[in-house]
Design brief:
InterPro entries: LysR_HTH_N (IPR000847), WH-like_DNA-bd_sf (IPR036388), WH_DNA-bd_sf (IPR036390). This is LysR family transcriptional regulator. With about 60 residues, the chain is an all-alpha fold. The chain has helices at about 5-15, 15-30, 30-40, 45-55. It has 4 helices and no strands.
Length: about 60
């Protein structure tokens, strides 16, 4: 049986540094469109990545 620490570690391992930078950009710019432009990614691509992070970290 996995410990809580192992569960959290496994989930965090599936989130990349790039994913975290995208989350930071949305928080910094308070806008998906501006964050996407700043990170040189499409708005839909950014939205997809943010959703992935939310799904992974939302279940901690």
């Amino acid at each position: 049986m996995l410990t809580v620490r192992e569960v959290i570690s496994n989930k965090l391992a599936s989130v990349s540094i790039r994913d975290l930078l995208l989350v930071e950009a949305v928080a910094k710019h308070n806008s998906f469109r501006l964050a996407a432009t700043a990170m040189d990614i499409s708005t839909s691509g950014l939205s997809h990545q943010i959703r992935k992070v939310e799904e992974i970290l939302g279940n901690l």
